[in-house]
Design brief:
7% of the residues lie in helices and 34% in strands. It is mainly beta.
Length: 328
């Protein structure tokens, strides 16, 4: 990738030529010195269309600063890309982040998707063999370090995330009016893992754990499918304002609250495992219209029956051998 020279940058080029130049030789020496200084320091433009490439000796890290793609790109696996501020994928442009790639994000950085984003193992491939890591670039990372991936009303059906670990974001996947497939991934330690607004996204076989909110849904005219996920150890597993969502065959155990309904309509959420087979204990993990002390507006009630009486064995991230690299 080309790195343009910043021709507008001003440089201090040293002591001016002496008023009394004795020979053409001295003129030539000064001109060469000025040219050498300019060539030495005159690189590193920081326009939105520029990749700031700061390589190490083995070219292992690539730094992107306010970077806007101008053509389709496929990043290189086994390398680390560091995103500062904004990475923008315009309409009709595709970014492919293959298995084995690490992407780190500076404070408040984000990816804005108006084109197509493909992260990880293609859906047509039989299985995931390597993970993509999207994480904070901060020392001692915490949830909310970076802003996440924002799907900005793209209307495309080609974006997917498969075999990725996404962590420490404000909203890891902020999906508005588009429907990417999110499958066989791990979303952890975010403020919100997935926010669906007007989306028919297919969310299945993921581990969604240790977030403040696992999945948030809004939008009455859409039908996201949330199935066969392990949604556990979150403050709120699912925050639901879209009662047309299909949410079934998930493990919804060990959350502070497994589900919070935040709309006035009733909601059916059958065939999930809530951590046990006692209806009273299940009701204790749900906030709905039956909990007037916990809510401030009129909301509906949740019908969780029939429910699974044992853990759903094939729900969640299916490649256990890949989990060993995630040990913290």
């Amino acid at each position: 990738m080309q790195i343009p020279v910043n021709c507008n940058k001003r440089y201090k080029i040293g002591t001016p030529l002496k008023q009394h130049i004795q020979t053409m030789k001295i003129q030539l020496i000064h001109c060469l010195l000025f040219l050498s200084i300019s060539l030495t320091i005159g690189t590193g433009c920081t326009t939105p269309d520029t990749i700031n490439h700061l390589p190490s000796e083995d070219d292992f890290e690539i730094v992107l600063e306010d970077y806007r793609l101008t053509e389709n790109e496929t990043w290189e696996p086994e390398k680390t890309y560091i995103v500062n501020r904004t990475l923008e994928i315009p309409q009709d442009i595709t970014l492919n982040i293959p298995p084995g790639t690490t992407v780190k994000f500076g404070r408040d950085a984000r990816i804005t998707v108006q084109g197509i984003l493909k992260i990880g193992t293609p859906l047509a491939q039989e299985q995931v063999n390597q993970l993509v890591h999207l994480t904070s670039d901060n020392v001692g990372p915490t949830s909310g370090d970076w802003n996440g991936i924002f799907y900005d009303h793209t209307h495309d059906l080609e974006s997917f995330i498969r075999g990725a670990v996404i962590e420490y974001a404000t909203i890891a996947l902020d999906i508005k009016t588009t429907s990417p497939t999110v499958v066989e991934s791990i979303l952890r330690l975010n403020e919100t893992a997935i926010a669906l607004d007007g989306s028919d996204a297919d969310i299945h076989h993921n581990d969604i754990l240790e977030n403040k909110i696992g999945i948030s849904t809004i939008g009455r005219q859409t039908l996201p499918h949330i199935e066969k996920n392990k949604i556990t150890k979150n403050e709120i597993g699912i925050f639901c304002e879209n009662v047309q969502s299909i949410i079934q065959h998930n493990n919804l155990n060990a959350n502070i609250f497994a589900l919070r309904l935040n709309v006035k309509f009733d909601f059916a959420i059958p065939n999930n495992w809530w951590g046990g087979a006692d209806p009273i204990e299940i009701m204790d993990t749900i906030i709905d219209g039956g909990d007037p002390g916990l809510i401030t507006k009129q909301i509906g009630t949740v019908n969780y029956e029939p429910f699974a009486e044992t853990r759903i064995a094939d729900a969640g991230f299916p490649y256990l051998t890949l989990l060993t690299e995630l040990a913290r």
